[in-house]
Specification:
Creatine Kinase, Chain A, domain 2; 14% strand; alpha+beta; 14 helices; Four Helix Bundle (Hemerythrin (Met), subunit A); globular; 45% helix; single chain
Length: 383
């Protein structure tokens, strides 16, 4: 683990005008549009199986109470320090990020950030005024402010890119460290609110699409072996969520006693074995269950392109089958990126944002079916 450099905390807030337009995408568009950098898997390695890579670093300031102990005064002081560190930094990627405070966000917009995987559900539900998000408008870099820890720095990229995700998150870590004094112990490493994160403070994770492993009935055996190797398998939205549509998050469990490089190397090596197993099983399905597989994929595509009502769970399950068909060349007309976008676009907050009003369950199911039909048609036209 890297030992942080010590720096002097300055309390003056530096004011500087920042360009609100980054790569043609504004912060406003972050809430109005769905597509983010991690959805663009066209050139990313193993993107047919690895949807995205994420590295998250947990950091706390040494002289400020941890988030669960903050009051109005200490919370305001903390936000002042973060605001200054962000404003003063000359690091290019940090300059391209924008600070969004939760007091200025509606409950709906917070849910949209959750559905985009930029903040956690617990972070979104808090009412504390001293919480927020530093975010690059393409979603590739984000810093949760005062979730479980003071800072949770994350980089989110398409395909299998753990090394690059770590490099970029570390650069943000270093840029903030120049202005902030992180809580660090020479023996224990970075100090965190939860003991399971002490050490590197790093969680590396991959979002995987594993339909063949699930269809073949081998998921229980494979996931058990992964747990024995110190990895954890969760649902698509992380801790406490169920696996829907054959989408899984694979991440490290241990943060103490290993370096960041070791964690990334281990997860990469093991994930490559999972990828190989998934590829072999896909080919086995093609050879041994060709007609059943084509029927399954064709039925899923037919339902998605004609349904007028569809639930979130059913949609994810069917989208998984269609994605398998795209990746195996059975549905050549649709972009896989369109499927990545749909995984987020069909969530309740995004549907409500599109509708511009509150919706009951039936209205959401109808809107979801409409969004899917339109996206699949657009995906065909663009492919």
């Amino acid at each position: 683990m890297r030992k942080p450099r010590k720096s002097v905390i300055r309390l003056k807030i530096w004011k500087r005008e920042r360009d609100k337009e980054v790569g043609g995408m504004t912060i406003k568009k972050l809430f109005e549009e769905t597509f983010l950098a991690w959805m663009n898997g066209e050139t990313a390695i193993h993107s047919d199986i690895v949807i995205s890579s994420r590295v998250r670093l947990a950091r706390n300031l040494s002289e400020i109470a941890f988030p669960h102990l903050l009051n109005q005064e200490s919370g305001q002081k903390f936000m002042q320090l973060i605001n200054e560190a962000w404003q003063k930094s000359e690091f290019k990627e940090l300059k391209q990020m924008e600070l969004v405070t939760f007091e200025n966000l509606s409950a709906l917009d917070r849910k949209i950030l959750v559905e985009k995987h930029l903040i956690s559900p617990n972070h979104a539900q808090s009412t504390a005024f001293y919480q927020g998000l530093l975010v690059k408008p393409d979603g590739s870099l984000a810093v949760m402010i005062n979730e479980e820890d003071h800072l949770r720095i994350q980089c989110f990229l398409p395909g299998l890119q753990l090394e690059e995700a770590y490099r970029r998150s570390q650069e943000i870590d270093d840029a903030l460290e120049k202005e902030l004094d992180f809580a660090f112990d020479d023996r224990r490493g970075y100090l965190t609110s939860c003991p399971t994160n002490i050490g590197t403070g790093m969680r590396a994770s991959l979002m995987l699409h594993l339909p063949a492993i699930s269809i073949s009935g081998q998921s229980g055996h494979i996931f058990h072996n992964l747990n024995q190797l110190g990895l954890t398998v969760r649902g698509i939205y992380g801790e406490g969520t169920e696996a829907i549509g054959n989408f899984f998050q694979l991440s490290n469990q241990i943060t103490l006693g290993q370096s960041e490089e070791d964690i990334n190397a281990s997860l990469t090596t093991i994930s490559q074995q999972v990828i190989e197993q998934e590829r072999m099983l896909r080919e086995s399905l093609r050879e041994q269950m060709k007609y059943q597989l084509e029927d399954r994929i064709g039925r899923a595509y037919g339902i998605l392109t004609h349904a007028r009502l569809i639930s979130s769970n059913e949609a994810l399950t069917l989208l998984s089958d269609v994605r398998l068909g795209i990746d195996m060349g059975m549905i050549p007309r649709i972009s896989a990126n369109a499927l990545n976008e749909l995984v987020v676009d069909i969530r309740p907050a995004h549907l409500q944002k599109k509708a511009g009003s509150d919706m009951d369950a039936v209205s959401r199911d109808a809107k979801r079916a409409e969004v899917i039909r339109e996206k699949l048609q657009t995906g065909e036209e663009e492919s």
